[in-house]
Structures are given as structure tokens and as C-alpha cells.
Amino acid sequence: MDLVFATNNKHKLEEITHIIGNQYHIISLHEIGCFDEIPETEETLEGNALLKARYVHSRFHCHCFADDTGLEIEALNGEPGVYSARYAGEQCSFEDNIVKVLQKMEGKTNRKALFRTVIALIIHEKEFLFEGSIKGTIIENKKGISGFGYDPIFIPVGYSETFAEMGNDLKNQISHRALATQKLTQFLQSAISY
Ligand code: IMP
Predict the structure, then answer these.
(1) Residues whose CB falls within 8 Å of the CB of residue 174, separated by 6 or more in sequence, listed in order
(2) How far is the CA of 61 from the centre of ligand 1 (A)?
(3) Which residues line the pocket of ligand 1, CB cutoff 6 A?
(4) Tens digit of pLDDT for each residue in 126-152?
(5) Torsion angle of the four alpha carbons 78, 81, 85, 86, in this order, in degrees rounded to the nearest 10
(6) Three-class DSSP category at 74
(7) How far is the CA of 189 from the centre of ligand 1 (A)?
(8) Could you tell me the pLDDT band of residue 194, with boundaries at 50, 70 and 90?
(9) Cα distance between residue 80 and residue 71, in whole Å
(10) pLDDT tens per residue across span 108-131
(11) How many other CB atoms are there within 10 angstroms of residue 9's CB atom?
(12) How many CB atoms lie within 10 A of CB 55?
């Protein structure tokens, strides 16, 4: 069965294709001829994931899913949250976002944070949500060079290295996105056996 992933991020496509295996044929937006900038105008991860999945479903009439991820920092009242990609401005880099977070965290003793991914699936005209999250702490200076985004400043609970120090192999087993993806995969695999 074909399943459209509302992304053109090659890394995400490979990751999910690897996990789901060949029971589903995962297709990117470009492969279905969708070159639109899909809006992410909701104020929650759930809202944005659903918005993207509904956008693709309503225009292309296909089974599809979309994801949205945010870093929620307790001492910043959940920021950057749904604005994680553009925390330091519309055209900002990962580095700009890290600088902004570290500045706002100066002097804060509560360094607790949560990475959260929500996946919205629309299949056979029904909507489903899957969530994965991982708790951790925000350190004061960047460490490590692998991964992306906020990886150099986030140490997951139970580990002594940042996501950027531990490397992608371990990160992809324990991360928020891996957990949400596993839930999606389990659902799809049980759905296929009916
Ligand atoms: P997206 O919804 O997957 O595009 O993620 C939104 C933003 O959250 C990204 O632009 C990154 O800044 C941040 N982000 C998402 N996943 C990760 C991760 O695994 N590590 C670090 N930052 C992430």
C-alpha cells in the first residue's frame, strides 16, 4: 500500500522506510507532485501535524501522515515548542536558535526539557495521532557535532552525553521521533494483519 509522508526531508524518509520495511511504500511529497509550502500555522504540534496531513489528503486523496517536533523547556514555559524551527526568526539557522535558547536560559537553575514528536496519520479516511517524547536537560554550552537542531545542548535523562555527542545510531533508537515512529509502525503493522 502506498503511504505519503508529508515531507521532502530525505533523512526522515530513509529513517521511516527502514523502520516500516516493505509492507508499505513510503512516498515523498515531490513524488506525488506536491511542491507547495504547506502551512504550519497552528499553535500546537498536534495541530500542525494534522494540518499538514489534512492538506495532503484533501488535495491528493491518498493515505498519508505528517509529523511535527518541538523542544519544550520548562523554565521557558514550554518554549520554543511549536516554534522550534524558527525560534530566532523566519530565516534563522540551528546555531541562531541555540544561541537564543542559551541566552534565555542564563541563570536558570531548572534546566528540564522535553523533546516531543507528534505524527498525524490519515488512512481510510480516519485520523490517528501518535506521540513520542524524551526528557532531558539543557546544558550551558554546546557539546558534540552530530545530529542537528538543538542536539548539542540536550542531554537525555539516563545519559551523560548530548544527542550530538552520542551519534545518530544511539540517538535514533531512543529519540522522541524514533518513539513516535515506532508507535506508527506498530499501528500500521497491526492494521495490515486485519
Ligand atoms: P520538525 O518538525 O521535525 O521539522 O522539527 C522542528 C524543529 O525542531 C527543527 O527545525 C529543529 O530545530 C528541532 N528538532 C526537531 N527534531 C530534533 C532533533 O531530533 N534534535 C534536535 N532538534 C530537533
Answers:
(1) 134, 156
(2) 28
(3) 68-70, 84-85, 94, 97, 147-151, 163, 175, 177
(4) 999 999 999 999 999 999 999 899 999
(5) -60
(6) helix
(7) 26
(8) very low
(9) 6
(10) 999 999 999 999 999 999 999 999
(11) 12
(12) 17
